[in-house]
Give the backbone structure.
Amino acid sequence: MQPPGAPAPLAEWWQRLVARIVDGVIFGVVMGLVTFIFGLFLVASYSSTTGASTGLFGSFVIGILMSIVLTLVYVGYDFFMHKMKGQTVGKMIMGIKVVQVGGPVPPGGIPNDAALKRALVTWGAYIFYWIPFGTLLAPLLSGLNGASMLWDKPLQQTFADKFARTVVVKIK
C-alpha cells in the first residue's frame, strides 16, 4: 500500500543503501584525488631539516581547505543531480527517484530549494572533517541521516527528506 503523500511506491531501504554505496564509491575516488592534491601542497611546504611545514600550507590549513572543498563537492553533486533529474548516479542504477511529498512524479528533478536543503543536511557534516575526530564525526552524522529512514513511518524519510519535504520512490 502506498502511504498518503507519496506519489508512487516508496523505495526499499536496501535500494537506497545500494544507491548510497554507488555514490560513495564515486565520492571515494573524488576524495582520493582531493586528498592527493592537497597532500602535494603539504609535502611541498615540508622542511626536512626542521621537520615542520613552512608557509601558508601547514597541515591545519590544508585540513580546513580540504573540508571545505570536499563539502562543496559532495553538496554540489547531490544538489545538481537532484535538481536536474531527481536522481544521483546510484539512484539511477537502482531505479529510484527523489520527489516532493504530495506532488506527482515529475519527469525532471526537484525544485532548487528542496534540492539544496536535502544536499546540505545529507552531506553538510563533512565541513567538520578538519576538526579532531572529524574524520569519524562526518561519516557518522551522514550515516545517521541515512539510517533515520528506518524508523520513520509511514514515508520512510531521512532527516534530509523531512527538511526538504521529499520522499524517495520507485520508478522502475
Q: What stands out?
A: The helical segments are 13-44, 59-84, 89-94, 112-123, 134-147, 159-164. The longest strand covers residues 96-100. The mean pLDDT is 88.
